[in-house]
Design goal:
alpha/beta; TIM Barrel; 10 helices; globular
Amino acid sequence: MIITDNHMHLYRHLKLEALEEFKKAGGTHVLLVSLLAHHYDVSPKSGRDYVKVFEEHLSLVRKANKIVKAYAVLGVHPAEITIIGSRLGFEKATEIMKEALEIAGEYVAKGEAVAIKSGRPHYRVDSHVWKLSNEVMRHAFEVAKEVGCAVQLHTESYSFEMAMEIAKIADEVGLKREKVVKHFSPPKVKEFEEIGIFPSVLAGNDNVLTAAKQGSRFVLETDYIDDPKRPGAVLGPKTVPRKVKELLKHGFDEDFIYKICKENIEKIYGIEL
């Protein structure tokens, strides 16, 4: 049985051992997402500085593939606008982030990654920074359309209005809504289906069962961050396999699991599991 975690990070706590735990619990496939530049001891002055970030991440993904089937998602976390902006100014930060997204797109075009990551801050910023953040996100959509890939989005907390706004930006760019994946989604599967963007449901609490009762148009994630200061955050690496197996106990069959863990992943990312 294929069990996929759609959004996981490996950093400086369990590292590859986290994937051993994921595998032991029944996990088979994972999308590993790159972290903020400072996690790689990079303080970007240009978009090209992200090459070190992406190369380190790809090296990790290659090692991960000896344990489970791992895919790379390369991106620029939206919080970078504040971090880089405080040093170099927000316009310069915007320019750097856009260039880095273009470089991430080049890795996708070469087949070394399956998606890019972008979004906008999940915390309050002033209207100018918000406008620039939306510019960066729109540019991520343009890159994704050009190279034919999906975008995983880190944004403010979900609301119907927020998701519709983002969906319309994708429309303006010409990126299919189903190629926009809202990371850290609540289990509002029917609502997401109406909007058209894809929910990556956080697998904590009763979210998985709640989502499953509404349909199969979702994927699952832990957003495991592998931080030694917060060892089980956001959710531990065993969570998705455990929650998927619980669905079987609630009467959902293996065809349902196949849909959320294989077919949906293949459709979003254009890959074959």
